[in-house]
Amino acid sequence: MYKVILQKQPQKYYEVLPKNKIKQLDRCFEAMENNPFDLNIKPLSGEFKGLHRIRLGNLRVVIAIYKESKTIQIGRAHV
């Protein structure tokens, strides 16, 4: 089981989203806790190498997955 941690910027973004997007993100975070690799994640390249992104409709969430400590850090969310 992974632990999902929101950084400051995505936390602020999350708080002002419409309720339907919040529910969508909550379901995504719950799925990530069980197994983040079952989701539609893609590795990023270049400056963001080592990070991954999850696409939820027109919303993008950039995450860092730490297998050793079983944590997922949400670093950025944007449309």
> What is the alpha-carbon Rg in Å?
12 Å
The spatial strand order of the largest sheet comes to: 1-5-4-3-2
Residue share in β-strands: 35-45%
Fraction in helix:
25-40%
Major β-sheet, in short?
A: 5 strands, mixed
Model regions low in confidence, pLDDT < 50 over at least 5 residues: none
Q: Ends: how far apart?
A: 28 Å
Query: Which geometry do the CA atoms define?
Result: globular
Q: How many beta-strand elements?
A: 5
The helix tally amounts to 2
- SSE string, helix = H, strand = E? EHHEEEE
Mean pLDDT: 90
Structural class by helix and strand composition: alpha+beta
Question: Could you explain the architecture of this structure?
Answer:
There is one protein chain. By secondary structure, the chain is of the alpha+beta class. The protein has a five-stranded mixed sheet. It has two helices and five strands, in the order βααββββ. The model has no long low-confidence stretch (mean pLDDT 90). The protein is 30% helix and 35% strand.
Question: Summed up, what is this model?
Answer:
The protein is α+β, with helices and mostly antiparallel strands. Helices cover 30% and strands 35% of the residues.
